[in-house]
Each structure stands twice: as structure tokens, then as C-alpha cells.
Amino acid sequence: MAELTWTEPESAANTNYPPIYPYNNVTQTESGHSFEMDDTPTRQRIRLQHRVGSFIELHPNGDEVHKIMGKGYEIIASDKNVLIKGVCNITIQGDSVVHVQGDAYTQVDGMSYQNLNGGVKQLINGDCEQTVNGNFGVNVSGNMTINAKNLNINADVNVRGDIGTTQSVSAQGNISAALSVSANKSVETTGYMLAATTITAGVSMFAPTVSDLFGSMEMFRLNVDTHVHIGNKGYPTSPPTKPMEV
Hints:
Layout: E1 24-28, E2 34-38, E3 45-49, E4 55-58, E5 64-67, E6 168-171, E7 175-177, E8 180-183, E9 186-189, E10 192-195, E11 198-201, E12 204-206, E13 209-212, E14 215-216, H1 217-226
Parallel strand pairs: 6-9, 7-10, 8-11, 9-12, 10-13
Antiparallel strand pairs: 1-2, 2-3, 3-4, 4-5, 13-14
């Protein structure tokens, strides 16, 4: 990963290596503007400086430093192309606004990293589509809320915690849970429901096969429908109970 910090390079005409006469040709105006063309051996440079301190300096190795002591403006009436054959560091000690009045495209041939120390808010007035050709992971330390008219998931859903709902849960396939399946209204599936502990629903529960840790619901119905009480002498004392209604 690239470095996130950088510093302004020192001028070649510093106090340790001052320009040497007569190699440095200086033009200076009455108000303090200056233009230097320095031919000092090993420290050749060019510097154009405004009286308030804004300057452009070309260093001996070809580096360029452009420093503006006020606001900066760049207006291009047509296209602009920028090629950077190295690392590009941009540090903004304030707010940043990017207004694209057309379409925006970003292509990253490597990894893309974002480190956000604050929150994120997005307003999308149109559709949003993401295509992920690999795995997709979301790690949330707190709560996660999804408000939608409909939530369609065309995949298997594996839940390692509880599923609670005030409406209905329906599936054309199977519903299974390591602990419990519960809902305040109804749980429905055309497949089977399996829970290691409990299956509860506030109003209705439907599945061709419903089972828990103690066996299937069909076996429980069979036991209820055929159960009789046996007396001390080994004879039945009552007829089978009323068949279980489902």
C-alpha cells in the first residue's frame, strides 16, 4: 500500500547550498517579484516568485514545486489529460467537493481501499446495481436495518442467530435452524422446517414435514391419534383420544 503522507521538498537554493555568483541570474522588480535562472553547478534551477510568496520552482533533478499562498484556480476550455507514472498523493485539509455534470467512470486494476473514520450517507435517486464476480462480505458491529417494499434473495440463506418477524415467513424450499424458528404471525414453506429446539408461530404454521429435536410432527400426530391409557391389570381403560386437528 502506498504512503499516505508527504512533505514539501526544500529548495535547492537553501542556506546550506546558496547560489554561486555569477551563475545565478536574478531579475527583481520594485514590489518584490523575482525571476531566477540559476546555473550553479549541480544545483541548476529556475524559480518564478510573487512578492507574497507564491512561486513555481524547477529543481536540479527536474522536480517542480508549485506553491500558491492564496486560492488557486484552473480553467480549461476543452479536454485535459493527466498521466502520472508513479504514486499520486492528494491531501485536503478541509472539505472536498467533486461535481460531475455528466457520467463518472472509475477503473481500478488493483485493489481499492477506503478508510472512513466517520459515517457514510448516500442518496441514489435512480437504480443501484452491483455485480460481484467473487465473494461479498459485510461485517457490522451494530444493528443492520433494511427498509424495502420487497426483498428478493435468489440464494440459500444461512443464519447463525435468531430470525424474528412480526409478519409472515414463507419459502418454497426448506427452512432449517440450529436452535429455533419463531414468528409472531406465520411460518410457511412447501418444503420442510427443521429446528434443533423449538418451532413456534403466533398464528399459523404450515409445512408438509415439520420436525424438531424430538422427531417429526407426523410422528407426534400419530402418537396422539392412537394413544390409549393402560390400567394396572394391563387392559385399556379408555378409548383413543380425539384425533389431533391441524
